[in-house]
Amino acid sequence: MGQKYQVYLVSDSTGETLDRIFLALKSQFSDFNYEKKENVFVRTNQQIDKIINECSKIENVIILYTIVETKLAKYISQRSTDNKIPCFGILGNLILEFSKLLNQKATHTPSAQHVLDDDYYKRIEAIQYTMNHDDGKKASDVEKADVILLGVSRTSKTPTSIYLANRGYKTMNIPLVLDQQIPEVLKMNPEKYCVIGLHVEPERLSDIRKNRIAIMNETNISTYTDLESIKKEVQDSKNLFKKFNWPTIDVTRKSVEETAASIIKIHDIKKNK
């Protein structure tokens, strides 16, 4: 095993494209020992300065980035050059450049990223765990969870959980129907686990629920779509998150990918504390 590299993935969006490209890239090098750090939604010079300052203190660091704004892309390239940090914008001739940097000959194996390696089986295990712990199922089994999502009905908990599972994160999601559905272990030790609260603006949530009711042809909707009831429901969930100091994400105008990127960032910060 060769020296270990610190690979910084810098994206001005969710980082999904860059992550997939890096997966394909690293599969071409059989002896590439690395640790990855993702930086998403990087859209200012100040954010880049922080990344460069951090990288300048680390040995064997490499920066890969996907930034569409020309001035910002030039800025990260120039700052990296000034600090003698290898930095590559996607999509360049990455395999050739990495071959030079690592002093290795690339295998040039087609679809090498699809090998059934440890990362693959980790994703399969995460998917199985997530499906078995969806919508409050086995809610007391929190010890193996990487992420625990809480939220009222229709806050994108399940699709976000599935997306995270495909990224290798064992995800449990629990609907906030009644407070007592939350496992006592989370309340007794709220800082131990990566618990994240999801919430939506009441007006938007009412529309989402009305659409679901229409699709399901249900007539007994009671307070499920009532705006005033939803406002109270959402506020109660926010109060709960605040009570236990759990981070929250407003998913009103976020795609599943954007929500997941924010969750991964929170998870990594908590993990590295």
Oligomer status: single chain
Number of structural domains: 2
Report, as a whole number of angstroms, the end-to-end distance.
28 Å
H/E series, N to C? EHEHEHEHHEHEHEHHEH
Largest sheet: 4 strands, parallel
Q: Shape, please?
A: elongated
* Beta-strand content: 15-25%
Number of strands: 8
CATH level-two architecture of the largest domain: 3-Layer(aba) Sandwich
* Spatial strand sequence of the major β-sheet: 2-1-3-4
The CATH class of the largest domain is identified as Alpha Beta
Structural class: alpha/beta
Rounded radius of gyration (Å): 21 Å
Provide the helix percentage: 40-55%
CATH topology of the largest domain: Rossmann fold
Number of helices: 10
Q: How confident overall, as mean pLDDT?
A: 90
Low-confidence residue ranges: none
Give a topology summary.
Elements: E1 4-11, H1 16-26, E2 33-39, H2 45-55, E3 61-66, H3 70-82, E4 87-89, H4 94-102, H5 118-132, E5 147-151, H6 157-166, E6 171-175, H7 184-188, E7 195-199, H8 202-216, H9 227-243, E8 248-250, H10 256-271
Parallel strand pairs: 1-2, 1-3, 3-4, 5-6, 5-7, 7-8
Helix pairs in contact: 2-3, 5-6, 6-10, 8-9
